[in-house]
Amino acid sequence: MPTLGSLPADKPELRLTFVWDDPKRAGVREVAGVVTVAPEQVLKDGVPRNLPDGCLVLIAGAAPLRFRGRIATVLEPLLQHMSQKRSPGLVISADSGTCQPFPPPVVDQARRLDVPLLTTAAPAEKWEGLHEEIQQSRLRLAERRVSHLSSLVQELPAHLADAQAMQRIADWLARVLDVQVLVSEPERVLAASPATAAEQLAQAVIQQSVDAGLSDAPSRPHTQLIPLAPASAVDTVLAVARRIPFDAEDLRLLRHAAKLLGLVDQAHREYRAAADASRAARGAAFALLMEGEVAKARRVMTSMAPGMLDPDTARVFVIDTEQAHRDAAVRRCTAIIGHQALVVPDSRRARRILIVHPIRSEEDNGAAVAAELTHLAGTFGAHSSLGGSGIYSMTLLADALREATTAQSFAALQPDPVALSVQGADLASLLPQAEAQHWARHLLSPLMQDGAQWELMRETLPAALAYPYTVAARRLHLHRNTVMRRTARAAELLHRDFGRVGDRVAVALALEMVTQRETTVPAVHTSTEPPSLTRLLAAPQVQAWAQTLVRPAQADRRDLLRTARAWLAFDTHVEPASRALGLSEVTVRSHLRALESHMQRDLTTLPGVRDLHVSLHVATGDPGLLADRPDDGLRVVA
Question: Is the pLDDT of residue 212 over 80?
Fold first, then answer.
């Protein structure tokens, strides 16, 4: 919109001369139009009542001396009316050089009403059509303003807390006004467009901070600094700069954008405050659960997730991911399972996420949440892994966390980085496959030299080692004597005593590796010395598996592991084990049932006995519990 100072910019002949007032101060007044009034009309009709708001009034065709008489008295109410209509000024035709065309009373009144008085040397016909030109300009300006505001509204986010909303508005401002845009706080940059704007505008923002006492001083014409929340103590600032000065319309648009950015900034702050409070409460609830303070944890979570911690049992999961990605991973987990589980970042480990999933019924074993977490862990990157516990009482979640942590450590060493319960893992799959194949083939080589004999042995031995001969014969549809004869021949060739637990475990494991496991890793050269079973069991993943198996038994007030060592030393016979321990057979059997419950293994089966046998050696570190024979047999010591 034109102003008193810019009105004659493209029409030099319409140059205006200020009779009073500072041209710099009054020159910025906007001119909405020009109303031309003849002196005769003023004398006849008085003050025009249909004077549009913001229009310049021109009394054309009157000599300065004619303003001294009757018309001077009419000017007083005219000035009063112009003040009410916010008219930018009163112009009369006067020859250049006229010293004072207005009488002093009129000048005094104009000063009081703040209505500038001006003169023009241009005849009335030169002013014809100017009003229509100004109206057309205003129309174009209004259309441009509507277009800008419409496009600004399009940048409104669906949620004010949208993390990218501020950057999108900054990009829009940079594009529409051809400016550099920086939105910043004293400690950080919130948005910049283009990316180099932060460097270009940093000095202006720093200077404003230094001159904080002059915050009301106007910015330079080419740089504008607008506080986003001037009424609060927040120091967020919108800084814009360009090569040419800003006009009034540009400044108006900047103020609109600043208001919107202020709303977004306020939403971000409130969202962060709410998120921080929620995160702190969830962290406190998790800490209380780890200390066994279930009732207190439930009270903490009542307002945020009523009923979430009401169940009596739960599973714990641990996710390990890259530190830079953890916060995003926490948000994704919370968004997907936050209504079912307590998700918190580990305060002691910068890579870990801890999750407690309450189990609401006996039928619900947490499989759905476990599946969601498995999928999520796969999207967090190649260096992420997931571990889970079994179902624990809410008062024993510290134990569940230890199991889940061990499972995660185990998972991190596997091709599939997910272990939802290490207790359920199979020992054969945990061994280093190429080395285990080499060990197994070396141990079984006496049986494998004759192809026909090997076929008979691989059919008979797995069942014969796992079951009594009568049961094995029935399962194999063979005569009992045939099973006994083949087993005796195998023991003779392998130099084993299948009455001993260690020999049965070693040969059964070797048979499983050779007959049931297909390895895709490069085979170890057969000329190299085969590894010992003890060396195979030293693998980190086996260590984690063994620790998880025996930990619940170690926590039992009874010395279950001592009973287990004696029972294995006497080749799973209860009577001699009870005599050696000085306990009744009933007590020994009770201890064994407790071990089965803690380890989730059936000790009436060879796989269950094998897992107990191996985990005791690995987890307790007892060098005499499981020792290699020269031919790689195993010896159990009570």
Answer: no
Distance CA 526, CA 448 (A): 15
Angle at 354 between CA 348 and CA 358, to 5 degrees: 145
How many other CB atoms are there within 10 angstroms of residue 583's CB atom? 18
Q: What are the backbone dihedrals phi and psi of residue 386, each rounded to the nearest 5 degrees, phi first? A: -135, 130
User: 3-state DSSP call for residue 66?
Assistant: helix
Tell me how far apart the alpha carbons of residues 188 and 166 are, in angstroms, rounded to a whole number: 14
**Main-chain dihedrals φ then ψ at residue 30, nearest 5 degrees:** -75, 145
Average pLDDT over residues 488-505: 91
How many other CB atoms are there within 10 angstroms of residue 36's CB atom? 17
What is the DSSP code string of 403-427? HHHHHHHHHTTSSS-EES-GGG--H
Beta bridge partners of 227: 237
Tokens of residue 446, six digits: 């006496």
Long-range contacts of the stretch 398-404 (C-beta < 8 A, 24+):
398/290, 398/291, 398/292, 399/551, 399/552, 399/555, 400/314, 400/315, 400/316, 401/290, 401/316, 401/318, 401/354, 402/551, 403/316, 403/548, 403/551, 404/315, 404/316, 404/317, 404/318
Is pTM beyond 0.85? Reply is no
- The pLDDT-based confidence of 68 (bands split at 50, 70, 90) is low
DSSP, collapsed to helix, strand or coil, labels residue 350 as coil
Helix (H, G, I), strand (E, B) or coil at 67: helix
Q: What is the pLDDT of residue 364?
A: 64
State which of 61-70, 96-105, 156-165, 515-524 shows the largest mean pLDDT. 96-105
Is 34:127 a contact under the CB 8 Å cutoff?
yes
Most confident of 61-65, 219-223, 500-504: 500-504
CA–CA–CA angle 23, 24, 30 (5° rounding):
85
Please say whether the dihedral angle defined by the alpha carbons of residues 24, 30, 35 and 41, taken in this order, is positive or negative. negative
The per-residue pLDDT for range 278-314, each reduced to its tens digit, is 888 999 999 999 888 899 999 999 888 888 999 989 9
Q: How far apart are CA 505 and CA 89, in angstroms?
A: 108
Of residues 570 and 8, the one with the higher pLDDT is: 570
Query: How far is it, in rounded angstroms, from Cα 442 to Cα 169?
Result: 71
550/406 Cα distance (integer angstroms): 12
Kindly indicate the confidence band of residue 330, based on its pLDDT and cuts at 50, 70 and 90.
very high
Span between the terminal Cα atoms of the chain, in Å = 101
Angle at the Cα of 140 (from 134 to 144), degrees rounded to 5?
Answer: 140
Q: Give counts: helices (H), strands (E), the chain.
A: 24, 17
Distances (CA, A) of 506 to 308, 441, 627, 634: 47, 12, 12, 7
**Amino acid letter for position 232:** S
CA distance 580 to 594: 20
